[in-house]
Amino acid sequence: MTDSFDGPPLTPPPERASFRDGVRFAFGTLTVLPARITRWDRPAARTGMACAPLAGLVVGALAAVPGVLLLLLGAEPLLAAAVTAAVPAALTRGLHLDGLADTADGLGSAKPADEALRIMKQSDIGPFGVIALVVVLLVQTAALSELYADSWVRGALAAVIAAATARLAMTLASRDGVPPARPEGLGAAVAGVVPRPAAAALAALATAAAAAAALPAGLPAAARSAAAVLAALLAAELLLRRCVRRFGGVTGDVFGALAEVSATTALIVLALG
């Protein structure tokens, strides 16, 4: 599989990017939703990656809608879960799953960094990539099925929290100090653009928002939602550090893997209890 996150090289940074520029960058880069990227430079990348969780909120909401409708029409939770899990893949053209498979192949190759990166750029998929895709999709569907079986509200909220947290993991991976593994692609475009204080503030805000959204269901539900976000970010951080050590930095494929791993972890925690 190729690194489908490749984009044009960044232009020299002009003035600060507006919030609208950042939203267009986030939606135009991380989703297939109509959003014309008006700027491709470091300031736009900085604002865009800070807006990544907002794109996740929209993707999660769009994923929850068909699942809830199927439940209301009498479908079983498993079918609703499968459709909900499929929507984010459709809204990203499968790029995050592609990145997960490529990263798994690169990490599992036991090759030096340059050869592992070459493997990740190839168009085929290896055994590690296949296993990663099967496990992640199976776990996501199983967790969502458990949640939908409890209530459509719990399942829908989980879909939104998981999608937003997945993009938040990308934001944190874009913080300063995280190098790119290649001189081109999304990794080079967004590596190191988000200041660490801003990344930490967004993580805290997302955790609090997830807890507040679940609070009507009680304090245990609120605590579980906050724990899901934190556990997902921890899993993504561990994978990020592994990839930086293994590849020398981040790539677009690594960002996709971080998104899928964090979303899956969040769904597992949310399905507990």
From TrEMBL:
Keyword entries, A-Z: Cell membrane, Cobalamin biosynthesis, Magnesium, Membrane, Transferase, Transmembrane, Transmembrane helix
Chain ranges passing through the membrane: 49-72, 125-145, 221-240, 252-272
Subcellular location(s) of the protein: Cell membrane
Cofactor(s) for this UniProt protein: Mg(2+)
One Pfam family linked to the record: CobS
Listed HAMAP family: CobS
Protein name: Adenosylcobinamide-GDP ribazoletransferase
